[in-house]
TrEMBL record:
Pfam families: DUF7054. Residues 15-104 form the DUF7054 domain. This is DUF7054 domain-containing protein. InterPro entries: At4g22758-like, DUF7054.
Length: 147
């Protein structure tokens, strides 16, 4: 008769999943095995490390805070990812119900555009408005010659 020893405090079983992350502008997706309970920001960091290790192009930064992870359900989502909401960095990757994702850089606000907006607002008041009006009249008065 054999006696079975009770198993001592083993780690609870971790559910690992295979996910596919496509990078905007890259040739193909990267496949990673991750834990279901991993947060989205940790998965982004792991994906960026794997992308850099494989030597893929275009070269991306290593700061995971500059990227957003999108739920990639079909082709239309990958063509225009900013129509859909990005995943929260604190969500777990297993709670999304999908295994396909798209990683994109966050949209950057151009500092020159923001400065130009402030300058145009300053020009439109008071004495500077005459200069602005002259510029508009001049731009509309130009004629485009036809063939």
């Amino acid at each position: 008769m054999m006696f079975h020893k009770p198993k001592k405090n083993r780690c609870p079983r971790v559910n690992r999943i295979l996910i596919s992350i496509a990078f905007m502008g890259s040739a193909g997706p990267i496949r990673l095995v991750v834990d279901e309970t991993d947060p989205v920001d940790a998965v982004i960091l792991t994906a960026l490390k794997s992308y850099r290790r494989e030597g893929r192009l275009p070269i991306l930064g290593s700061n995971f805070e500059d990227f957003l992870l999108y739920y990639g359900s079909d082709v239309t989502d990958t063509l225009c990812p900013h129509r859909i909401a990005a995943l929260s960095p604190w969500d777990t990757i297993g709670s999304q119900g999908s295994r396909n994702f798209l990683l994109c850089k966050k949209p950057q606000v151009d500092q020159r555009t923001a400065d130009a907006g402030r300058k145009s607002a300053a020009v439109s008041h008071g004495k500077g408005s005459r200069t602005w009006k002259k510029w508009i009249k001049k731009s509309f008065s130009r004629r485009i010659s036809s063939h």
